[in-house]
Amino acid sequence: MAFITANWNPLGEAFYRKIELYEMGWSLRDGLKECLVAAAPYGGPIALLRQPQRPSSSARPQLEIYSSSGANMASFPWKSGPVRQLGWTVCDDLLCIQEDGTVLIYDLFGAFKRHFSMGNEVVQNQVLEAKVFHSPYGTGVAIVTGASRFTLATNIDDLKLRRLPEVPGLQGAPSCWAVLTQDRQTKVLLANRADLYILDNTSCTPVTPPGLSLQSCSIVNMAVSFSYKYLALFTDSGHLWMGSANLKDKLSEVDTKVRTPPKQMVWCRRPKSQQPSVVIMWDRLLLVAGECTDTIQYTLDEESVCVAELDGVRIVGGSRHELLQEVPSACQDIFKIASMAPGALLLEAHKEYEKSSQKADEYLREIKEQSVLGEAVRQCVEAAGYEHEPETQKTLLRAASFGKCFLSNYPPEPFVSMCRDLKVLNSVREYTVGIPLTHTQYKQMTVQVLIDRLVYRKLYPLAIEICRYLKTPEYQGVSRVLKHWACCKVQQKEEPDESIAHAVSVKLGEAAGISYSEIAARAYECGRTELAIKLLEFEPRSGEQVPLLLKMKRSQLALSKAIESGDTDLVYTVVTYLKNEMNRGDFFMTLRNQPVALSLYRQFCKHQEQDTLKDLFNQDDDHQELGNFYVKASYKEKKLEARLSLLQSAVDEYNKAKNEFAAKATEEEMKLLRFQRRLDEEMGEALLGLSLQETLHALLTSNFHKQAEQLYRDFRVPDKRYWWLKLTALAEKDDWEEMEKFAKSKKSPIGYLPFVEVCVKQHNKYEAKKYVSKVTPEQKVKAHLAIGDLEGAAEAAIERRSEGEISTVLSRCSPTTDRALLERLNRARSTAAKK
């Protein structure tokens, strides 16, 4: 604790410190000399392209990927073309930009993923320089060709190449250039000696930085801040200009007194900091410049590379990995010599308390008198987050916990949250993991992204422990990690299918939100079809199983799974796929072995594919259904001959099916159609297609009684039906004379009450009265009531001495007009009741 400020260096009103993150674990004979280096931000991996030690025609460069602690993750000889630039995507994939404009993408472990080209023009003119940048759209690539033209791709995952306008007077590569992202637009800022230009999609605009010293003759280096808000320019006179990236505001200008062009220049600025600062690196010198005229200088004893971060600069060397950053204000307030800040007093109070000294009470009284105990606790908690040494973190958190004891309403969330964050950060900063995140970077990155990065590095146990420790919802945490583990597991070709399937099922168990179909799909992509099928057995959702089985050409199994699911839509999906993939005979044979699928397909064909339905019935020798098919098809035919032909086919099929009733009924339908055609030809009546009953009705209403009689005899229409049809038809056309003759022709099989009713229905009570006398005694009351004859109804009811019929008549009588009849009926009812 006594030496915390030993590595602090003042610059203006701020302090800067250099913290050693790791002693690098790699073994590089010449350090980073003759190496092309790219390090990913947020404590990401480091890629080296090392040139062969003894140049020869057979010697090849070596591409190596390390963690931030120098642990080797991948190494392989580079067999492709000359590489101009290395860079990392936001997902920690390595980009290798070749001089022919081809960009090759590798994963963290050196596995090739894909490639793309920056255009044909680049192939011809070669790449002079290239840069990889990150924008709101994703990871981008910018290049400048031998023709002094810039080509830009703002998102390599959605590749759209943009060729930027020419720069006047530019020959070869510019003095220096950088990519800017402003207002969701990506532009290129370049310097051609003393001239500065901004290139966008349509124009090349000359710009002048405000207040740039006249002593400068040429701009030799430039740097854009991590947030793309600030710009730094270095001139050949040794002056450093700092300002806004839109070139509207100047922040400061510093004379570094070094005229040699720097190897690297990056911004070193914490979020919310008021101190602009830039780190400039030469071969053996590292210089930090800010708003004031003073600078901080560090001597470099080895070849190094600067990596811009959100809140500082990482310095990667052959033996060490360090972090250079502005000391956060909370740490300054607490640890600065003779500081009287609340946090500093609380830390001293806690130290004295641990010594059992009375001074602890004095410090506490001083803090409480100023009413800043809450602020003191907040400072200690915040400062703990900025410290890398666990012992310093613990000291600050213990002081904060000590101060909280004297506060009644201090919220516990910030303290608890910081403890959790630091436990996670300390675990990923371990040498074996090698992700030196700061608390600021961790909060910007989010837990989910950190889990993703651990999973990508195959650090599954640590990822699971962090998820459980932070109580992340299972489907977002543990289940997601296990799914990635399983997808990686199925790619291990040395293990047998049974072993992997068992391991996956045991490990995943009942974990929520895991889709075995996704794991099986990965196995299938790796050429392990049988393993994919075994894994699908663990998938509870048939809707997830079936599509993958179809993709794997396991259609029979897919059909069985679809039928087991009971989901008709899924069965239809498989059947449609089979129909398109198989020949007709095999398709029908497959369906014959699956009755449910066959039944559903028949239902589909009934509505959509009638001809296919006929083929299905033929295949199965289902004569009954074939007969039904021909009958239904006959109704759609407009020409009689075609209809009769189909009906004859139906008769043949019914006979084969030994369905005599259906065959006879169909034959009679054919007979009726021929009869109707003859009537149409003779009388001009449109009878074709009508049913037997409709045909009889049409003939009777048209006075074709003889033809109706013939139809009645030929088709053996029951007497009661025929009398009803004729009676109804005669009543509809008001042929009362013919009705009377019909009633007298012979005894009515339906009685005479229907005659009364149809007459009344046609509002002809006069004709109805003619048939009342012929009605049987049981129906006389009903007949009299139908024509409104209450007297007659009363006589009939009294004569039959039926209490029910008397009550019916009584209900129809009016107390005012039928008083005498009411009395008579009441007496008759009383008499009937006594008997």
Q: Hey, roughly how much beta strand do the residues contain? A: 15-25%
Work out the helicity level: 40-55%
- Largest β sheet strand count, sense and barrel closure: 5 strands, antiparallel
State Rg.
Answer: 49 Å
Query: How would you classify the helix and strand content by structural class?
Result: alpha+beta
Please report the number of helical segments. 33
**Poorly predicted regions:** none
Strand order of the largest sheet: 1-2-29-28-27
- Distance separating the two termini: 124 Å
The total count of strands amounts to 29
Principal-axis shape equals elongated
Average pLDDT reading: 84
Keywords: Endosome, Lysosome, Membrane, Protein transport, Transport
Protein name: Vacuolar protein sorting-associated protein 16 homolog
Function: Plays a role in vesicle-mediated protein trafficking to lysosomal compartments including the endocytic membrane transport and autophagic pathways. Believed to act as a core component of the putative HOPS and CORVET endosomal tethering complexes.
Membrane topology: Peripheral membrane protein
